Amino acid sequence: MAQLFPLRSACRFDTSGERRLAERLEKKLGADYLCWYNAPVGANGLQPDFVIAHPERGLLVLEVKDWRLDTIRRMDQDSATLLVPEGEVVVSHPLRQARKYATELVSALQRDTLLRQSEGLYAGRLAVPFGWAVVFTRMTRRQFEQTDLHEVLPPERVLFQDEMLESVSDDEFADRIDALFPAPFPCRLSGEQIDRIRYHLYPEVRISSAPGQFGLFDNHQDALPSLIRVMDLQQEQLARSLGDGHRVIHGVAGSGKTMILAYRCIHLAAAAKKPILVLSYSRALAGRLEQMMAERGLAETVQVRRFLAWCHELLRTHGVALPTERGQAFYAALVAAVEAALESGEIPRGQYSAVLIDEGHDFAPEWFRIAVQMVDPDTDSLLVLYDDAQTLYGNLRRRDFSFASVGIQAQGRTTILRLNYRNTLEVLSVARALATGALRAEQSSDDGVPLIAPESAGRRGPLPKLLVLDSEWQQWHSLVEQLQDAAAHGRRWSEMAVLYRHASDAVAIERALGAADIPFISGRASRTRDRLFGSEDQVKVVSMHSSKGLEFPLVVIPSLHILPAAGEDELLEERLLYVAMTRALESLVLLATAATALTERVGQAVEQVQRALAEA
Ligand SMILES: Nc1ncnc2c1ncn2[C@@H]1O[C@H](COP(=O)(O)OP(=O)(O)OP(=O)(O)O)[C@@H](O)[C@H]1O
C-alpha cells in the first residue's frame, strides 16, 4: 500500500476522478511509492494534482482530467477547447500543464548539490529522473485511439479510465504507472535524498533545530543547511491531514506531538471562520505556545488556554455565576458549572473552528466532554495528543474510560508515534531504563492502544552525568559550575534549565544562581510561569511538573536523592523523573547529595548504556 499525503479521508477532491485515482494509487501501489495530492510545490506554491516519488524511478507529476471524449471540441499542441454548459472554453493542454509543474519541481531541486549526479555521463545533472503525464478518468484507451487526438497527445503519456478500474490487478496498474516514469538513467535514491527532495518540494515539512520552536521552521531562512531536518512520513501525513474530523495521536515523549499541533494551528488559522482553541493542562506549555502564535501574528485567531482557566473565562464571558466552593472543590464545581451551562444553552456550543488538546493524558473525562461540544459541527475538527507514560494528574493508572464514552470518535482515527526525536540515544536509553513502571506495557481499557515505549531516532550525544556530592553546599556549587562550564563552551543561558521537584529546592537554586551572577527566571511564582519563555538570555528554573512539553539543550536535575519523595505515589515520582529527563535535547546532568536506591539505578543505567553503545 502506497503512502498518500494527506490521508485520503482528509483530501478535499475537486473531482470524482481524482478521488478514484487516489484510492487506486494508495491501494494498488507498493509501500515505496509516496503520493502527494494537491500539495503546493516549491516557492511559487503551484499545486499539481498528484506528485509520485519512488526511490528507483524518480518523480512523476500527474494532471487529472475528468473530460469526456464528446466534450473535447479541439486540441492542439498548446490548448484544448472544451464544451461546457456555458459554451466553449479554451484551457491549457493537459500535458503542457503537467510539464510546467514538473519544471517547477526541477528548479526547486536543482539548487541542491547533494541531489546532483557526482559521476558518469550525466555528472552535474539532477540525480532524480522526472516525468509528467495525464490521467483521463472518463475515457478509455480505445476510445481515445479512435480519434486523432494522439497527434497532439501521445497516448503512452496517458493513463486511461479502463487502466485504473478497481478490477485491474495491482501488478498491471503498477506497470502502467511505472511506464509513465521516464528512465533516462538508473536511479537509486537513498532515504536521505528522498528527505532532501521533500525538503525542497514541500517547505512545510521542514523542521527547525532552534530551541523552543517546537520544530517549527522559519521560512525566511534562505541558506541551505548541509544537515536538513524534515518531518517523518507519518508526521507529514498527520500534519497535512488538517481538520479531518476527530483524531487522536498517541505519541511517546519527544515524538513531535506539539510540533504537529503547532503546525496544524498555523495552517487551520489561515482558513478558520471562528477562533481555534488549544487546551493544555500546564501553564508553562500554554505560555510558550501562546507566545509562538503571537510571534506569527495569530494571537487573535488561535487562543491557547489552560483548561481550568478557560472554564473560568467561559463562565464569566457568558454571565454564569462562578461556584462558591473553596480549594480543590472549587475546580470540580467549576467544571460542573460549565457542563450545566452548556446543557442549558447559557454557554453556546460549537464556538471554535477547531479544538486541539495537548497533554490529553492529564484530562478528566468531563473535560473531554466539554471540549468536544465546543467544536463547530461544520468542521468537526478535534485533535487530541496523548502519552500515558507522562500522566501526572488525575487518575495515574491507565485511562479507565473510553474515548467514545466522552464523545470522541477516534475509532480508526488513532495514530501511534513511537520515535523519539528530541533526546539523544544516550539520554533516552537512561530515561527508559529508569521508567520501567511508567513504561510497563499494559493494554489500555478500550482503544486497544498499548502503552508505548519510545524508540530513539538515533541522534548521539554525551552520556548523562550523575554526580553524587557530599553536601548541599557542594551540590549548589556543582550546579553553578555545570552551567558556567556550558556557557564557557558557547551555550546561551536561555538554552539551560534546572528542573526541581520541590519549591524548597527552587529557593536554594535561585539563591545559588543569584550569588554566581547567572541570569535566570524562575517559574516558582505562578505569575512568572507564563513569562518563562521571553527572549531574555536567562537560565530557566522550572518544576518537574511544569517542564512537561518543554525542551532545553542542557537540563540539570538536582536533589535526585529525595526521589521518590516521601509519601508520594512511586509511579508518579517515576513519571515525573521520566518527564524531566526527556526534556534534555543534548546534555543531562543529575545531582544528588546521598547515594540512594535511585542514584544506584541511575549509575547502573548509565554504565549499561555506555557498555551497550561501546559494543554496538
Ligand atoms: N522528524 C523529526 N526530525 C527531527 N526532529 C524532530 C522530528 N520530529 C520532531 N522533532 C523534534 O523533536 C522535538 C520534540 O518534539 P515535540 O516537542 O513536538 O514532541 P512531543 O511529542 O510534544 O514531546 P513531549 O510529549 O515529550 O512534550 C522537537 O525539538 C522537534 O523539533
TrEMBL record:
Enzyme class: isomerase
Gene3D superfamilies registered for this protein in UniProt: P-loop containing nucleotide triphosphate hydrolases
Catalytic reactions of this protein: ATP + H2O = ADP + phosphate + H(+); Couples ATP hydrolysis with the unwinding of duplex DNA by translocating in the 3'-5' direction
Classification via SUPFAM superfamilies: P-loop containing nucleoside triphosphate hydrolases
Pfam families recorded: NERD, UvrD-helicase, UvrD_C
NERD domain mapped to chain residues: 16-111
Classification via InterPro entries: DNA_helicase_UvrD-like_C, DNA_helicase_UvrD/REP, NERD, P-loop_NTPase, UvrD-like_ATP-bd
EC number: 5.6.2.4
Keywords: ATP-binding, Helicase, Hydrolase, Isomerase, Nucleotide-binding
Membrane-spanning intervals of the chain: none
Name the record gives this protein: DNA 3'-5' helicase
Protein species of origin: Isoalcanivorax beigongshangi
